Amino acid sequence: MKFHKLLPLLFLLCSFKSNDGSEEIVGMWFTQDKASKIQIFKHDNLYFGKIVWLKSPLVNGKAIVDEKNPEEKLRSRAVLGLSIFNRFVFEGKNSWAKGEIYDVRSGRTVSGKLSLKNKNTLDVRGFLGNPIFGKTVTLIRAE
């Protein structure tokens, strides 16, 4: 068979998205208390999450800022739009790891792991050192 006859087939095979489950966490997620919404997205084969909605975005008429950040120059930045999940890598079997989680409430950055329990439930585990010494919170997919 001539090569030019194989081109359409090759193009078709290359155009299909990978079905490895790596993008199952992409989308909008509510925090447990539904006080904020996080958008998880993929960029350069890494996964990130940023705050895109706050139930109460203002305090005394002013935007909520990152006041607990250890870097003084960052304490005036708005929480809305802030990246809180950074550089997660898909490890297979509904698991993303080797990333970092920024906790706005404490100003701390910790190691993290994301585990998709089902299509609408995402466990987010933050830890220092060993994952057994951490805390898990659950996000619910925002439909």
TrEMBL record:
One Pfam family from the record: DUF2147
Annotated InterPro entries: DUF2147
Residue ranges occupied by any DUF2147 domain in the UniProt entry: 27-141
The name this protein goes by in its record: DUF2147 domain-containing protein
Originating species: Arcicella gelida
